[in-house]
UniProtKB/TrEMBL annotation, chains A, B:
Domain spans labelled WHEP-TRS: 13-117
Enzyme class, spelled out: ligase
Gene3D superfamilies documented for this protein: HUPs, S15/NS1, RNA-binding, Tyrosyl-Transfer RNA Synthetase
Alphabetical UniProt keywords: Aminoacyl-tRNA synthetase, ATP-binding, Ligase, Nucleotide-binding, Phosphoprotein, Protein biosynthesis
Family: Belongs to the class-I aminoacyl-tRNA synthetase family.
Protein's name in the database: Tryptophan--tRNA ligase, cytoplasmic
EC numbers for this chain: 6.1.1.2
Gene Ontology molecular function terms on file: ATP binding; tryptophan-tRNA ligase activity
InterPro entries noted in UniProt: aa-tRNA-synth_I_CS, aa-tRNA-synth_Ic, Rossmann-like_a/b/a_fold, Trp-tRNA-ligase, WHEP-TRS_dom
GO biological process: tryptophanyl-tRNA aminoacylation
Cellular component aspect of the GO annotation: cytoplasm
């Protein structure tokens, strides 16, 4: 992404770019071969020639004095060296990723190792995060893999340039919160992150942060998969005791789907009930519909315009795969999903504070929005949001794609009856053995029934209060 | 237009860029010749000719101690050095590319080693409303003609597909209002229209309509030319007795100019004082800043999103000449200037009425926005706004262009002293004979002095009331 600003003006030699990508790929492989000394030296060298775009600026990731870094290296042990290597790999992968994006922006097709520019291959309809033919395809609108084993999440970490949530990080979360890590962490449902260590640093130094997650209300009913980020976010809210904002992107769904504004807003309110039923604390949680909040908060709109000024169409095209035939609403929408990452979008909660760090738990298909956000943040004087990425919830038909609200048979809906669950599950053929099916049904039926019971208790008044811009039970001066 | 987002980040002169590219080219050649040391030295040298664009600033990228960098290099072995060189070359080539991109963005042409900047290419970003070489160029940002007689407005009517305001229409306005037509009608200052007869039909059938005009607050001071639509709009408000909304597009100016949000909003408030000084009725007029009203009216944002869903980037490109390098804020902005054409953007005035016809008096360079609006209106179930188009107020230097707030000598500002008016006018050389100049000064000095006196009476409280969303003295059920 970060290279796009330069290539946006369009006249790069695609061959030079092709060669840069090949060279950078070489480098990533070399790094993965694990030459720590070389990694550090390379990083120092790159620091002096790096393209200068913040997301590449190694200097920010280095101790202030490169010399002392090398000194420290020899003093410090194996684990430190490992950490440098990890950092170096992350950064190198970031660079590779942005080169590929630039390549796509310049050439109009994904980079293919065996296919130099000039021998065009059919264009995929996704952004550069979409993968080469035969590999996984992941963007905010499509998740598809040819492998029956499902998405290769390790590859995704490499391609997206995020970091793996390893045992070390999970242990640190346990130490910081004094709580047993949530099963979604222990079992790798949340498997990837950006800057989580920075959030923990802040937390350990008693600096405040806040949580931001969201939901695109594409239908009245949510399914099991939708609950995952919310179940985990509720746990984060409980163990860290921080404010939480939840964005319902009804404007996005109006722009992308064949819905009226009233339908989209109606879905937002219905979905809010399912979200509230996860048990969020009304004194610590603000849920908002874009269609409603945009017209209720000048501060929110001001951040949207700030972001929109700092992202070009070429960048949006490179990140999201937009085309000239897309409506201008889609093209500018990413700024609206980005804006809640900045605390002064919510003056009723944070006063005029612009520096409260944001942590975003979300499924990894939402990462492109926040890579864009993280690239813009320093250019408009805000901290980058940190992220925790979850895997997708496999469709009933198999792991090749995720549960989708638009395909009833792919999903177990929170509105399904016990009988529907039984039937749907059996309809999925060879996915499970009879015993497993039976066990699954026994788990799902009560789980869904309990959720439905909690949801019944969520009155319109409660929803209204959650969705009213107001101070939460935290004091920011 | 397209390069504003980049240039605002720094202040590189085209020549500095040109030199940086030359130096960087040298460096790449040196690297390819394997002279790593020379490359490092060149890199340090480049710091001093660095173009200053944030994303290029080598200073930001150099390790704190370049000496230790070289020291570290000698520590490691030959293969490492080879690897550094490869990386150094990759990054240097990337940098060279990005400098060339920035050069193209700043200068409008590709970098040519043998051709320093100074003969910039003619502006190439006009849509179909822009004219072929030798003809008039008219779009919302540029008005230019080669003819000393000024813009050929009859040709413009043909090209824009509007209708001439003829004697018949002027007579009909006189019959309908029982008032002598305003001198701007009699003298052809307002010379073109769309659907004005439809507005008069409605008026004669006692159906309500409303007026909408606006101002892009690009500077604190307005000039004479800016007053024309407002003087005429005030007359329309008086003779038709209808509600009036005035949009201050401070968000547009933030997106297009090198301004902060606060500056843009500040200009909006200052300009509002000049507009109020034209004598608008506070009970019949609502003035709003986009940055403020977007965050104060869900109905307004909902119309913006509706319009954004129905305009593709291709259409926006065709109408406004946007390029892929334009920021996504510019690309989606036209929907924000379109939205006030629909009465339900102002529920405080029109309740939930969607069918109150809108009449827009404006200078004809704003027509592209409203051609787009009229194209979208029926597709989202709203009536098309009608328009009355004015000519441009010629610059003091001559009729080839219009008065511009950005060029002090082109304009008589409402803040000018009698002495400034005298001096500026004489400076304009052959424009008028001495007698005419004398007469003009005699007209202008008191006119401006009176305006300044009226403006003094416009208190912050009065501005605040004009800019508060509220019911006007009309009842819409």
């Amino acid at each position: 992404m970060a290279d796009v600003p330069k290539l946006e003006q369009g006249c790069a030699s695609s061959l030079e770019l092709f060669n840069s990508i090949a060279a950078q790929g070489e480098r990533v492989r070399a790094l993965k071969a694990g030459k720590a000394l070389k990694a550090v030296v390379l990083r120092v060298l790159l620091c002096s020639v790096c393209c200068g775009i913040e997301t590449h600026c190694y200097k920010k990731q280095l101790p202030t004095d490169a010399g002392s870094l090398l000194g420290n290296r020899s003093e410090s042990g194996h684990s430190d060296r490992k950490q440098w290597l990890t950092d170096e790999i992350d950064s190198a992968v970031q660079m590779l990723l942005s080169l590929k994006m630039s390549y796509k922006a310049a050439v109009g097709e994904d980079y293919k190792a065996d296919c130099p520019p000039g021998n065009p291959a059919p264009r995929g309809d996704g952004g550069p995060d979409a993968t080469e033919a035969g590999e996984d395809f992941v963007d905010p609108w499509t998740v598809q893999t040819s492998s029956a084993k499902g998405i290769d999440y390790d590859k995704l970490i490499v391609r997206f340039g995020s970091s793996k949530i390893d045992k070390e990080l999970i242990n640190r979360i346990e130490r910081a919160t004094g709580q047993r890590p949530h099963r979604f962490l222990r079992r790798g449902v949340f498997f990837s992150h950006r800057d989580m260590n920075q959030v923990l640093d802040a937390y350990e130094n008693k600096k405040p942060f806040y949580l931001y997650t969201g939901r695109g209300p594409s239908s009245e009913a949510m399914h099991l998969g939708h609950l995952i980020p919310f179940i985990f976010t509720k746990w984060l809210q409980d163990v860290f005791n921080v404010p939480l904002v939840i964005q319902m992107t009804d404007d996005e769904k109006y722009l992308w789907k064949d819905l009226t504004l009233d339908q989209a807003y109606g879905y937002a309110v219905e979905n809010a009930k399912d979200i509230i039923a996860c048990g969020f604390d009304i004194n610590k949680t603000f849920i908002f519909s874009d269609l409603e909040y945009m017209g209720a908060s000048p501060s929110f709109y001001k951040n949207v315009v700030k972001i929109q000024k700092h992202v070009t169409f070429n960048q949006a095209k490179g990140i999201f795969g937009f085309t000239d035939s897309d409506c201008i609403g889609k093209i500018s929408f990413p700024a609206i999903q980005a804006a809640p990452s900045f605390s002064n979008s919510f003056p009723q909660i944070f006063q005029d504070k612009t520096d409260v760090q944001c942590l975003i738990p979300c499924a990894i298909d939402q990462d492109p929005y926040f890579r864009m956000t993280r690239d813009v943040a320093p250019r408009i004087g805000y901290p980058k949001p940190a992220l925790l990425h979850s895997t997708f919830f496999p469709a009933l038909q198999g792991a090749q794609t995720k549960m989708s609200a638009s395909d009833p048979n792919s999903s177990i809906f929170l509105t399904d009856t016990a009988k529907q669950i039984k039937t749907k599950d059996y309809s999925s053929g060879a996915m499970l053995t009879g015993e497993l099916k039976k066990a699954l049904i026994e788990v799902l039926q009560p789980l869904i029934a309990e959720h439905q019971a909690r949801r019944k208790e969520v009155t319109d008044e409660i929803v209204k209060e959650f969705m009213t811009p107001r101070k939460l039970s935290y004091d920011f001066q």
